[in-house]
Amino acid sequence: MTTSGVSEDESVTLDLLKKKMAEFAKERDWDQFHSPRNLLLALVGEVGELSEIFQWKGEVPKGLPDWKDEEKEHLGEELSDVLLYLVRLSDICGIDLGKAALRKVGLNAIKYPASKIQSQPNDDHNVNN
User: Fold this and answer.
1) How far is CA 39 from the centre of its chain?
2) Cβ atoms of 117 and 126 closer than 8 Å
3) For burial by CB atoms within 10 Å, which of 26, 40, 62, 119 has the most?
4) What distance in Å separates the CA atoms of residue 74 and residue 84, rounded to the nearest whole number?
């Protein structure tokens, strides 16, 4: 077991994260503070902290091969903060985040059909008409 109470080989789902976040807030009597507005503002703050990590690095290659372990660990912590606030916000708003995300992928597939997309360097959404 890890500090999360989940074994290394156990899958982590959005539902598990939602449950853990709800328990965490309840144990600390924080539900009173977890309005959609407050959670959104906290999420934006965490996105800012995540942005600071990349702010002066320029473009970085996939996998972050030149990053130190400590830098990757810090990145993981900030990514986790963003994810956890997003999961909590969706829960408080009554949105099934997993289903909403899958629906959005489907809508994006319609909006950007693979047969009409031509990949260009630095142009991820070049649609050929």
Assistant:
1) 14
2) yes
3) 40
4) 15
Please answer whether residues 119 and 126 qualify as being in contact, where contact means their C-beta atoms are separated by less than 8 angstroms: yes
Measured in whole angstroms, the distance separating CA 50 from the mean position of its chain's CA atoms is 11
Task: Supply 12's token pair.
Answer: 């982590």
Tokens of 78: 């900030």
pTM above 0.90, yes or no: no
Give residue-wise pLDDT tens across range 60-114: 999 999 999 999 999 999 999 999 999 999 999 999 999 999 999 999 999 999 9
Sign of CA dihedral 19, 20, 24, 25: negative
CATH number of 14-55+68-116: 1.10.287.1080
Containing 26, the helix (H) or strand (E) segment is helix 14-27
Euclidean distance between CA atoms 120 and 129, whole angstroms:
15
How far is 68 from 66, CA to CA, in rounded Å?
7
Nearest CA to 115 out of 105, 127, 104 is that of: 127
